Structures are given as structure tokens and as C-alpha cells.
Fold this protein.
Amino acid sequence: MVATAGTSVEIRLPSRLGFEKVAMGTAASVAQLMGFPSDRIEDLKTAVAEACINAIEHGNQLNEKLSVGVILSASNDKLEVKVVDNGAGISRQPPRPDIDRKVHGEEDPRGMGMFLIQALVDEAEWVHDSKGKGSYVRLVIRLEKESAKENP
Amino acid sequence: MQAETRTTIDRTSGANGASISVLRFTGDISSASKDSVLGAWQNVAGSHPVLLDFSKVEYINSSGIALIIQMLMEADKTGRKVAAFGLTPHFQKVFTMVGIAKYAGLYKDEATAAATL
């Protein structure tokens, strides 16, 4: 395993849908170097993709003159991912998606992204830069989660 | 950057010999897949059950999940049964988390899925 603690990887994505896959691949590579099991890497990939899609679509409004920053910071026991955009952030969490309401046309079939992010990583927070310079979502997955589950 | 979505329409039989339509997806399922996914659904004639084949799908995001929910909305209106197969363990988990499994059974392979319809 490659020593990764204390290292950081940064990439910048154009605000164009599809480029979230670049962030997914990068996050998966870092998580693999850190020794995360494959199922946690899949969770991370989906969470990072959804965070980037939100940043591209809602934060930067698909404005290709703006970029989305993705900063991956590795430590001994966790990987932190910040996805930064130029938007105002979210004022409140959307309600938990309700599949019955969606299938019966009472709720927009979209709107699963934030729910998936929260469900798939160990920590997720949405932060608005008080200086008005954009906002970011911060995701964390912990390396010991599997062993902690096995040895509560 | 996103792999194009291709959807082909196939036909198989259930355990009792009843006709089943099979939508076979290839590539990514995302916001760019709307015409391919929903267009194929519109082209599935009749009222027989539908199988969704994800065995050649590489990537599904929340916009793609919304398209699948739109197919389930259409199925619900007409009382059509839907089942899915070929999902990776990760996407089986995601589909269960978001509730899709309540409206479309998720199975490992086509034969098992077809036998339930």
C-alpha cells in the first residue's frame, strides 16, 4: 500500500455534466491507495459524482466559464473530499425522497442526489462561504468502518 | 465524457409462457439518457410485463434513477409489472435505498427475474 496520510490531491472540473466521472475516478484511485474495500469505494464514487453534479448544475448553473474544485485529503483513518462551486449553497436540506409520492406523480422523480450522498458516506455537510465566495460540500469516509462494524 | 445510452427491446417468456418485454440498456444512464430510456419505454407495446436489463450499464446517477422512476410511474398507471436484473451489488443497494425495489423486484439474472413476472 502506498503511504497516503497527509497527502492532498486537487482537480478542477469544467461545469459540464459528465466530468463528474473524472472526480469519481480520482477519488476511487486515492481510496484504493488508502486501502478502502471495494464496496466503500463504490459508495464514495456515487457520493462524489452526486456532489459534483450538484455543483455543476445548481452551484455553477452549467456555466462553463466556472470550474468545480475537488480536493481530496487523506489522513490515517479517513478520506475527506471537498467539492467547491461558485453558488450560494443550500438554505435548507430537501425533504427525504418518498418513492410512493414519486411513483404516483406527487413528487418530482428527481432530487435523490443529496439523499444518496448522506446515505453513502460517514459525514456530509454543506457549507456556505460567509465571504460570498461560493460554497462547498464536505464528505468523509472512514477507513476503519468495516472493522468497527465487525468489532463493535 | 458520458457513455452513450443504447436501449434495445427484446422479448422473452415468463414461467407460465406469458410474453415479457425486455429493455436492455448499455452504457451510462444519466440526464443525457432521457430519449433512449423513455423512448424505448414508449415503444414497448401492449400491457405485458417488462424486464429491465442493467447487465451492460456502467454508470447510473441520480438523474438516471429519475428516468427509471418515470418508467415505474408509467407502469403503475397501467398496472404493468416490472422487474430488473444485472445490477452490480452497489446499484442493487442504491436502488433499494431509494425505494425502487418496492416497485420493481431486483434479481441477479434474467431467468430468475422472468420467473417472477
About this structure: DSSP finds five helices and five strands in chain B. Chain B has one domain: 6-115.
